[in-house]
Amino acid sequence: GAGVSQSPSNKVTEKGKDVELRCDPISGHTALYWYRQSLGQGLEFLIYFQGNSAPDKSGLPSDRFSAERTGGSVSTLTIQRTQQEDSAVYLCASSLPGAYGYTFGSGTRLTVV
Amino acid sequence: DQQVKQNSPSLSVQEGRISILNCDYTNSMFDYFLWYKKYPAEGPTFLISISSIKDKNEDGRFTVFLNKSAKHLSLHIVPSQPGDSAVYFCAASVGTYKYIFGTGTRLKVLA
């Protein structure tokens, strides 16, 4: 597609439930990133995928968070047993390998009640 | 431990004047710096970048200055326009990925 597409745009979930957030990167972009922005905070790196290489998961805040990327394209970020502190805007971005700067999607606003 | 800091959460500037947004960092290994602009309900969009081997990069109305000794970079917008009203994030990295972002500065350009 023309840009990075994320779904859903908004998600309200009850504490303790699992959620899945989806990202469709720009066609041809082999690098894919997940960031999140909590209220009043900067963008926090979560995970990075590059082609078939092992992902860099160093930013995932707990083992309740996981992400996968199928077929080198679409990625899903899964949060299990959601907590209120997981409430944030989750942003996906993609880029060509080695490119400086990437293209972000519009994000998914997750609210855990 | 915030490696990239934007100490001014907001800034108001009159249309036509210069906007100066500041960013400080602590990691001397950072070798590439970016500025992003974000409108409400949209993802951040890339604005301008600078590598650590330079001290200035210009693109139209936007200029980024890097002072490595002070670990400080700034974004100048001249002249400021109402459409520039947005949140501006600076980001820094070692290498080409895993950028560390600041908390952002909300710029309001008054008509």
Structure, described:
The complex is a heterodimer of chains A (113) and B (111). Chain A is an all-beta fold. Chain A has no helices and ten strands. Chain A has strands at residues 5-7, 10-13, 19-24, 31-37, 43-50, 65-69, 75-79, 88-95, 103-104, 108-112. In chain A, strands 2, 4, 5, 8, 9 and 10 form a six-stranded mixed β-sheet that branches. Chain A has a four-stranded antiparallel β-sheet with strand order 1-3-7-6, with no helix packed on it. Chain A is globular, with a radius of gyration of 13 Å. Chain B has 111 residues and is mostly beta strands. Chain B has strands at residues 4-5, 10-14, 19-25, 32-38, 45-51, 56-59, 62-67, 72-77, 86-93, 100-101, 105-110. In chain B, the strands form two sheets. In chain B, strands 2, 4, 5, 9, 10 and 11 form a six-stranded mixed β-sheet that branches. In chain B, strand 7 (62-67) and strand 8 (72-77) form a beta hairpin. The mean pLDDT of chain B is 94. At the A-B interface, strand 4, strand 5 and strand 9 of A face strand 4, strand 5 and strand 10 of B.
Task: Give a short summary of the structure.
The complex is a heterodimer of chains A (113) and B (111). Chain A contains no helices and ten strands.
Give the arrangement of secondary structure elements.
The complex is a heterodimer of chains A (113) and B (111).
Chain A: E1 5-7, E2 10-13, E3 19-24, E4 31-37, E5 43-50, E6 65-69, E7 75-79, E8 88-95, E9 103-104, E10 108-112
Parallel strand pairs in A: 2-10
Antiparallel strand pairs in A: 1-3, 3-7, 4-5, 4-8, 6-7, 8-9, 8-10
Chain B: E1 4-5, E2 10-14, E3 19-25, E4 32-38, E5 45-51, E6 56-59, E7 62-67, E8 72-77, E9 86-93, E10 100-101, E11 105-110
Parallel strand pairs in B: 2-11
Antiparallel strand pairs in B: 1-3, 3-8, 4-5, 4-9, 6-7, 7-8, 9-10, 9-11
